[in-house]
Automatic annotation (TrEMBL):
UniProt region (Disordered), positions on chain: 592-746
Biased composition (Basic and acidic residues): 592-601, 621-641, 663-681
Species of the source: Fulvivirga sedimenti
Low complexity bias: start-end ranges: 731-740
Protein name in UniProt: Carbohydrate-binding family V/XII
Ranges of Polar residues composition bias in the record: 645-659, 682-730
Length: 746
């Protein structure tokens, strides 16, 4: 076996996100007549693939001096997302319905309708992804029901420790570039010193030494000879890639715990110290970075690992799985803003859990140039395939890429894009479709995450594609989200070593703004990883799935809490992925020269195509019953048979460079419409007014309508809170470019 590429070090520090788009509502569209259209924040009714279905309250002034006329507009829009900025651009807007309930003159209704149909699609509307998540009215059926919840080996330590995960028994091979032997089946950097024949583990500020890879690690102290030269080279590389302040090293080296099987390390600094959680019968361990709680009434410990709860009567185990809807009732009473509010996303029935499951269904979208985009698949020898249980598909096992064989064709997924070829070794071109059985791939297959990469639309020039967080390992399991499938996937050992996606060993934890991050323990922040055997500088690493994906690392000694309560902590969060030092992004498509996200460039000559819905992600359903059956005697209903809001022949005209609607001046974001198209305004005291031909009057709505309006208002306020809270956690220094000459183009 040989190493795939030269040594490179990737540091897991957190880098700040990019600047934000304009997310102030309502939006204003100026008219050439001097008037304007004001669009209030969309009330999301659902989405299918990358198409968002909304209804919005609008006001129209045809002339500047006119009084505003209020109505409701239904629209389908292509949603282009960027999870770096947590913003979505709504473009290719198709007005599917309009109602002005206070106008009786049909000619005026027709005029307003034509105006909105003409003017709104000329503009792009930007909205925060957090607002979309908070305003979704119903949840779809997307759920991963066959994930594994068997606990890994859970190791408890009372002193600062670091878990070093090795994928099975150590595989030691010669690295010609280093002229040293290295352990290839671990993301940690372990070398064998040719001078003293001992193993050395690199920890950034510390080196460890041992006669065995799996035990006996001790601080190395001063270095000499070959190791001193290697340390100098590594420190220079770290300094070159360092951005921001270096994280301080612990006062003394932590202990090293090695596992050759799936495991998680939980630890306390000394004897476990528990503090009460206000308003509950729960305690939380305060001297740890793990999420460890105790239910006082049952004297049971609960630990949250990769989104899964495990319980035990002892911190030393044994541990058993606890379903998120079977936890003690007080879990859902953990106060927002408290030290452990972050666990609310993994407690069934909480708004935070709902938001997390919704987030898991929002895609990261892009368009890729079908004529220039390609991929390269390398095999360790001739391609070898194995069947995928429950399907007629086969998956290649001797490559770091994900390659499927289906119906005498070959499909590869690389960084969120599907490719197809008539030969397992290429050449490859962007695919217009996915294998028909991709949805049947079980979680026990390492190809499972490919079912979350979608093809939304096809034109002669572009493929419109996207992936949901499942591609990065975030799955909806029952009422909450988890990380990883929980299964162990056998790696490939040959001339090369190819790791497979893992669930355990890296302390994966969820936060509401940016998804999953790593947390190894109280003192691992100074550690550096080597991806020399399959990482950014070479072929895909595979430890976390997609080739370019590296979850961010949460620094130790974090302040904790305050995620939902708006209290800023000292964690600098960096989104769904932290791919490489100096390359701040949580969007895999940014690492493709052939892909564009939230792009407003022309896609002229776009032709309509009828995309198979099997190539789209599951739908968050919308209740349109009241829309389609309500009385339309005073409003026109247009025939939309030739325009379903997606893949239409006139879409090219609506995808030209367009301006972005600006925030409206002096307008409060407090106007709503119900499903019948009536317009309401919420007053500061919480009362509702309904718009009539005589102005705003105290509403005499039914209790059910009032309840729905209150819920809409709560969701809108929640979206604003989420957006503001996320922005407070971010700083905005410029990102550094990728290392020269090293960046992968495809």
């Amino acid at each position: 076996m040989k190493l795939l590429i030269p040594l490179s070090l990737i540091l897991f520090f957190i880098f700040p996100s990019q600047s934000y788009g304009q997310d102030t509502w309502p939006k204003e569209i100026p008219l050439s007549t001097g008037g304007k259209v004001v669009i209030y924040q969309p009330q999301v009714e659902g989405f299918e693939g990358n198409i968002l279905h909304t209804r919005s309250a609008v006001s129209v002034r045809q002339q500047a001096k006119d009084e505003p006329v209020f109505g409701a507009v239904w629209a389908d829009a292509q949603m282009l997302t960027d999870k770096d900025t947590r913003m979505a651009t709504l473009e290719s807007i198709d007005i599917t319905d309009v109602r002005f309930p206070n106008i009786e003159d049909q000619s005026k209704i027709d005029a307003f309708e034509k105006l909105l149909e003409t003017e709104i699609p000329k503009w792009n509307l930007e909205i925060s992804i957090d607002r979309i998540i908070a305003s979704l009215e119903s949840q779809g059926k997307i759920e991963d029901s066959d994930l594994n919840t068997t606990p890994p080996k859970i190791i408890y330590r009372k002193e600062p420790s670091t878990l070093v995960l090795i994928d099975g028994e150590p595989k030691i091979e010669k690295n010609d570039d280093l002229n040293m032997e290295t352990v290839v089946n671990t993301p940690f950097f372990i070398v064998k010193n040719p001078d003293d024949k001992k193993f050395y583990l690199f920890g950034g500020d510390f080196w460890y030494v041992s006669g065995s890879v799996t035990s006996g690690w001790q601080p190395a102290g001063s270095l000499s000879g070959t190791m001193k030269e290697l340390d100098k080279a590594l420190q220079e590389q770290i300094a070159e890639n360092q951005e921001g302040e270096k994280e301080p090293a612990p006062a003394s080296p932590p202990a090293i715990v090695v596992s050759t099987e799936p495991a998680e390390l939980i630890q306390s600094e000394g004897e476990a110290d528990f503090q009460s959680i206000e308003g509950t019968s729960l305690l939380y361990m305060s001297n740890t970075t793990n999420d460890i709680l105790m239910d006082i009434s049952s004297q049971t410990y609960y630990v949250l690992l990769a989104g899964r709860w495990y319980n035990s009567k002892s911190l030393n185990g044994p541990w058993s799985y606890s379903a998120p809807d079977k936890l003690p009732a007080d879990f859902s009473k953990i106060p927002k803003g408290s030290e452990k509010d972050v666990v609310l996303a993994n407690v069934a029935g909480t708004p935070e859990a709902r938001d997390a499951t919704m987030e898991a269904q929002i895609p990261q979208t892009a368009k890729v140039d079908r004529n220039s985009t390609s991929c390269t698949v390398e095999y360790d020898g001739k391609p070898k395939f194995e069947p995928i249980e429950g399907t007629s598909l086969q998956v290649a096992v001797n490559t770091s890429s994900t390659v499927l064989r289906a119906n005498n064709k070959y499909y590869a997924v690389e960084n969120g894009v599907w490719f197809v070829s008539n030969n397992a070794e290429g050449p490859w071109k962007v695919s217009e479709e996915r294998p028909s059985e991709v949805e049947k791939i079980p979680a026990s297959s390492p190809a499972y995450n490919t079912k979350y990469v979608y093809i939304y639309d096809v034109t002669p020039t572009y493929i419109y594609t996207g992936y949901t967080p499942g591609y990065l390992g975030c799955y909806v399991y029952g009422p909450t989200v988890v990380y990883g499938t929980g299964y162990y996937y056998r790696p490939w050992y040959g001339a090369y070593y190819y790791p497979r996606p893992v669930t355990w060993g890296f302390g994966m934890h969820y936060n509401p703004w940016t998804g999953w991050s790593m947390n190894f323990g109280v003192s691992v922040g100074f550690f550096s990883f080597s991806f020399g055997h399959g990482g950014y500088y070479g072929r895909p690493g595979g430890w976390w799935g997609p080739p370019m994906y590296r979850p961010p690392y949460r620094p130790p000694y974090y302040g904790g809490g305050g995620y939902y309560g708006g209290r800023r902590n000292n964690i600098n969060i960096n989104g769904d992925v932290n791919i490489n030092v100096g390359n701040n992004t949580n969007n895999l498509y940014r690492y493709r020269n052939d892909a564009v996200t939230r792009d407003r460039a022309s896609t002229a000559n776009r032709t309509g195509s009828s995309r198979d819905r099997a190539n789209q992600n599951g739908n968050i359903s919308r209740d349109r019953t009241q829309n389609t059956t309500r009385d339309r005697t005073q409003n026109t209903t247009r025939d939309r048979a030739g325009n379903a809001g997606v893949n239409t022949s006139d879409l090219s005209n609506r995808m030209q460079n367009k301006p972005t609607a600006r925030p409206a001046d002096r307008s409060k974001n407090n106007v709503y419409t119900d499903k019948k198209g009536d317009v309401y305004r919420r007053q500061n005291n919480g009362n509702w007014q309904q718009k009539s031909s005589n102005g705003w009057n105290k509403s005499s709505v039914t209790p059910s309508t009032r309840q729905n309006l209150n819920r809409q208002s709560e969701m809108r306020n929640r979206g604003t809170t989420r957006t503001n809270s996320y922005q407070r956690t971010q700083s905005r220094p410029a990102s550094r470019p990728a290392p020269s000459g090293r960046r992968r183009g495809n």
